[in-house]
Specification:
This protein is α/β, with parallel strands linked by helices. The protein has 2 domains: 76 residues, no CATH class; 289 residues, Aminopeptidase. Helix content is 36%, strand content 15%. It is built from 12 helices and 11 strands. Strands 4-5-7-6-8-11-9-10 form an 8-stranded mixed sheet, with helices on both faces. Strands 2-1-3 form a 3-stranded antiparallel sheet. Helix 5 packs across helix 8 and helix 10 packs across helix 12. The chain is globular, with a radius of gyration of 21 Å.
């Protein structure tokens, strides 16, 4: 009897995987969503792999198989961004046509420290993995949060207000958000649009997400340390922004942009003014041949004006580095969440996408393979970005 019932259950679940849902949930047949709770309880997730095809329900093994085919995806099970799609479009703010704050940026750049970054990332990659559901995924978030609090404590409290917060999710790993703003501006009741600099904190072993070893040094420990070093440089350099800056470390990017979708949806619900969001995901791998070392400029899922401005900063503050335009693909990182919600977003990458790090999503994505001079280039761009956008 139990076997017969299990057989019926498996047949029912199998029918879920064959159910393709309309790309626009606002016009979807309500019956297609009627069993969402039971599907989630059975381990199914609603996965989208294209803007032109409807999402489908998939099991974890089916989702992990997408890594083998290099198929990028977005997990739309919780309908976070879809739930705010009818909200008013976010306000747009002027993005500089060209850099004008080099005199402020340049004195900050010598503060960048490769030894500091190496020490930081060595600890961050020492957790068995940073998978969003695993105990060490929570522990690594706790460590990151403590590190952010430590930097915040160094700020000149007469000039800077630095707030470190946890953005909780319905899984154990939380997103970490650090807000930096002028004490004088806050006292005067000023606020202004937020400049966001982001990375994702989680890692994954595509063969065994929960229990496998996944140092995630490049993906995305490198982006995480890039924006952390940017935060440290600004605090240590006593930079006081005119408008707020936020540093975001998203949870669960590797699970289909889960953390960033929830953060962005919350910002849209609360009508938070965002001037621009700049994502850094993988900044530490490049060709061993210096003549082939480039920085990739994403051409899709970005705001053209903001992306062009970030490209100008890349060239200005890394004179010997070439850039190359490269397509990122569907749902390739958390900037896509901002773009889908109507906010201007930018994204740089360590190489052309077709030449990206072959070690990611495995136990071999280790800190000893990081090219720190390459990471430093991205920190220089990130420092320039936050200064130019918030001055």
């Amino acid at each position: 009897m139990i076997l017969a019932r299990l057989s019926l259950l498996f047949l029912a679940l199998a029918s879920f995987t064959a159910t393709a849902l309309p790309a626009n949930p606002d016009v979807a047949d309500a019956a297609l969503f009627a069993n969402t709770g039971s599907r989630k309880s059975a381990g199914y997730r609603l996965i989208s792999t294209s803007d032109s095809a409807p999402p489908t329900w998939k099991t974890l093994p089916e989702i992990l198989a997408l890594y083998d085919t290099h198929t990028r995806y977005i997990d739309v099970t919780d309908q976070d961004l879809e739930s705010v799609s009818s909200f008013a479009a976010p306000a747009r703010f002027d993005i500089p046509a060209r850099p004008t704050r080099a005199a402020v940026v340049k004195p900050l750049l010598p503060i960048i420290s490769i030894p500091n970054m190496t020490k930081w990332l060595t600890t961050f990659t020492s957790f068995k993995n940073r998978y969003y559901k695993s105990p060490t995924g929570k522990q690594s978030a706790d460590w990151l949060f403590a590190q952010a609090k430590s930097v915040a404590s160094l700020a000149d409290k007469t000039k800077l207000k630095v707030t470190v917060s946890k953005f909780a999710h319905d899984f154990v790993q939380y997103s970490v958000i650090v807000r930096v703003e002028s004490v004088a501006a806050v006292a005067a009741g000023g606020n202004g649009p937020v400049t966001v600099l982001s990375a994702h904190q989680d890692s994954i072993n595509a063969r065994d997400p929960m229990n496998g070893v996944a140092p995630g040094a490049d993906d995305d420990g490198s982006g995480s340390v890039t924006i952390f070093e940017t935060l440290r440089v600004l605090v240590q350099g006593n930079y006081v922004p005119k408008t707020p800056i936020e540093f975001h470390w998203y949870a669960a990017e590797e699970a289909g942009l889960l953390g960033s979708q929830k953060v962005v949806a919350d910002y849209k619900k609360r009508n938070v003014a965002v001037k621009g969001a700049f994502q850094l995901d993988m900044t530490g791998y490049t060709s061993s041949n210096p003549s082939k070392q480039v920085i990739g400029i994403a051409t899709d899922n970005v705001d053209a004006t903001l992306q062009n401005f970030v490209k100008q900063l890349t060239v200005m503050h890394n004179n010997s580095t070439r850039t190359v335009n490269t397509a990122c693909g569907y749902g390739c990182s958390d900037h896509a969440s901002w773009t889908r919600a109507g906010y201007p977003a930018a994204f740089l990458f360590e190489t052309p996408f077709e030449e990206s790090n072959p070690r990611i999503h495995s136990a071999n994505d280790r800190v000893e393979f990081i090219n720190w001079k390459h990471v430093e280039k991205f920190v220089r761009v990130a420092v320039a970005y936050v200064v130019e956008m918030s001055s």
